[in-house]
Amino acid sequence: MKDLINGRCGWAGTDELYVKYHDEEWGRPVTDDKILFEFLVLESAQAGLSWLSILKRREGYRQAFYGFDARKVSQITPEEIDRLMQFDGIIKNRRKIESTVRNAHLFRTVQKEFGSFYAYLSSFFSSKTPLVHHFKTLAEVPVTSPEALAISKDMQKRGFRFFGPVICYAFLQATGFVNDHLEGCLCRKNTAEENDA
């Protein structure tokens, strides 16, 4: 895989959906708990699969999980889970669907304890600002970090599922807690400015 393709991080390739996600979302700071919950659901669903396969089903997940409303998702019943197992718009994995409901309940518990899920995540970063890395090649980008290890360990202790350190690091990259756009990527400057804002 090339490090840069058309001036972008090479992992985005040329698929229109992937390029749009790279250009408009990945690495941009997210402070809104609803969007953080959306990425928690999507990243957890991605475990063992390609991110593109989840992006292609994103609208299906939005439909299945009440527009990523954590309160409503936390109230999904076993009967609704049975129905979701028949829904073609998402990955039909019972353990992942059940964990989404469980994680929604735990997400709300964390919100009550910290005031917001964003405040909880921020507590793991001493500078309280995003980490901006200066990688030149995709090979330099790590699959996890000390922060991701600490967050996933704490979240697993709280009972969250499908959120190990690798998934956690992908989540932190996606939501802008970490800026891993490569040096030379056309989106690096935009996300760096947002990170400084």
Give short descriptive properties of this protein.
54% helix, globular, two-stranded parallel ribbon, two-stranded antiparallel sheet, 197 residues, 11 helices, mainly alpha
Write up this protein.
The chain is mainly alpha-helical. 54% of the residues lie in helices and 4% in strands. The protein is built from eleven helices and four strands. It has a two-stranded antiparallel sheet with strand order 1-2. A two-stranded parallel sheet has the order 3-4. A hairpin with a 2-residue loop joins β1 and β2 (8-9). α2 (33-46) packs antiparallel against α7 (94-114), α2 packs across α10 (165-174) and α9 crosses α10 (165-174). The model has no long low-confidence stretch (mean pLDDT 94).
How large is the radius of gyration? 17 Å
Q: Which class best fits the helix and strand makeup?
A: mainly alpha
Q: Determine the number of helices (DSSP H or I, runs of at least 4 residues).
A: 11
| Strand neighbour order, sheet with most strands | 1-2
The major β-sheet equals:
2 strands, antiparallel
Distance between the termini: 32 Å
Low-confidence stretches: none
Entry summary:
54% of the residues lie in helices and 4% in strands.
Write the layout of secondary structure elements.
Blueprint: E1 4-5, E2 8-9, H1 16-24, H2 33-46, H3 51-55, H4 58-64, H5 70-74, H6 78-84, H7 94-114, H8 117-122, E3 131-132, H9 146-158, H10 165-174, E4 178-179, H11 188-196
Parallel strand pairs: 3-4
Antiparallel strand pairs: 1-2
